[in-house]
Design a protein that fits this description.
With about 140 residues, this protein is mainly α. The protein has 5 helices and no strands.
Length: about 140
């Protein structure tokens, strides 16, 4: 006799469990959509950072190319190289060594910081940002 009642009980349970299963299914789908949204946001952040770095490198390359083109017919770099090399060469001439030492002492003690930074800026502008970045890393 228990067997004939089993059919209606199973039908009744099915009617009760079906809506619960549907709610569970929708909850899982919602969680999957939320997780995918978080993944998409992180992916967009990484792609944005990559794009920003690429743009920055491209702009630096354009600047360096323009600086090199601008130097094509200029004596500025040669003059700065000679100016920069002068004290170095004088260090190997015993009679000139006191003048080099005193000159650098005067520069260190009496030259305003803005002048020192300005001179550094001229060198960086002349020889390009790559040279500055290599020097800065050391």
């Amino acid at each position: 006799m228990a067997i004939p009642l089993l059919g209606p009980i199973i039908s009744g349970l099915g009617a009760i469990l079906a809506p619960i299963a549907e709610i569970g299914k929708k909850w899982i789908e919602k969680k999957q959509v939320e997780a995918q949204g978080k993944i998409d946001i992180e992916k967009a952040k990484v792609e944005g950072e990559v794009k920003r770095l690429q743009t920055s490198q491209e702009q630096e390359g354009v600047y360096n190319t323009a600086a090199q083109e601008g130097m094509k017919y200029s004596w500025k770099d040669e003059w700065l190289t000679l100016l920069w090399s002068g004290p170095f060469i004088m260090c190997f001439i015993p009679a000139a060594q006191p003048y080099v030492k005193e000159g650098f002492n005067v520069l260190k003690e009496f030259t305003p910081e803005w002048y020192q930074w300005g001179f550094l800026g001229i060198l960086v502008a002349s020889f390009g940002l790559k040279g500055w970045n290599m020097w800065k890393k050391e």
